[in-house]
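Quick one, T. Sequence first:
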Amino acid sequence: MIVLSMSVLPALSAGNFAVSQPQAYAAPQYTQVPYQPQQYGQNASQALSGYIVTVPAGINISATTMSELSSQTATVGQLVSFALPSGFYYNNVCIAPAGSTIQGNVINVRKGGHAGKNGQLQLRFTQINTPYGSVIPVSAMIKTTDGSGVLVSGTAKDTTKAYAKDLTVGAGAGAVLGLGMSLIRKGKGVLISRGDEIKVTIQSDVELPVMKKEAFKQQEMKYEGLDVKILDLWLVKDPFGVRNTFEITMDIDNFSDQNFSGFDIAVENDMKRKFYPALFFKDAMSFTKMESGSSVIGKMYFSVDDPKRKHWLVFYDRMTRKPLAKVSLDNAKRDLGIDFGSKKHKKYKVPNQKMFK
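Structure tokens:
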């Protein structure tokens, strides 16, 4: 059986502006929650820029399965739909925003186990559906080492971490090239579990419409007198070696009627899951007081279970714990031109001490 699974070993961590050496902590396990596409409050005509771009064959798209798919139960012609949690970009322009899905059909399937034969599964994707209701025609297949798009069980015994670079998994024809995969015994079927991530390759050149940048910005919440600017954003490793921690450099001007500290701030994802500041990083300002009438520049760290989800930096009312302000990390990442996959990143240099005005 081929089992494609994202290996997520995040850890809770938290931080202090000037901390003593942290105690040893055990890394907790998180249960992965499958990605759910979202709908936007605009129609297709409002979202399109009016420009067209030619996307060449061979371009890859990262997609996430929305339901389990197995060669043991799949049938030819069966409809399949994968989510695009990070959207589809080409040459720094948006073809389809996060929340889109790529849809297609099963075109070839063979059950595994009979006379020791390996299971096979082949899909062809024909369209991308955007949250605005537009349909983008494409011709695409799952990326494999031999370019056939045929997934074959039993081609290797290996497990790779999520967020790894493209890896050739196994030497046999049809081994998958992609993210977070585990392939095991021969003579079994191909299984793609819900929430697994694969790569889809465009098969032929296609002209596609370009989305407006403003069309796919995440909604934010403002609070009178509180001005939060994200100066830098990066994804770093936690103390357990898992690259799941947002390093956020921010400039906070608090002239509201509220007082804040790091305990009143969290990162929240699109599943409403909250992640509080990490304690493992010496240059964090998690215990710094942000009283009314003050300003501060500094870093905070937040370890999350899935960095590819949508996230917001949230400020809470200290008494009621109701959210007062939300700043989208995805908007900041886009505005700053940050690519977490890039090897080069010039970090913002924070002053040696807190800066109050």
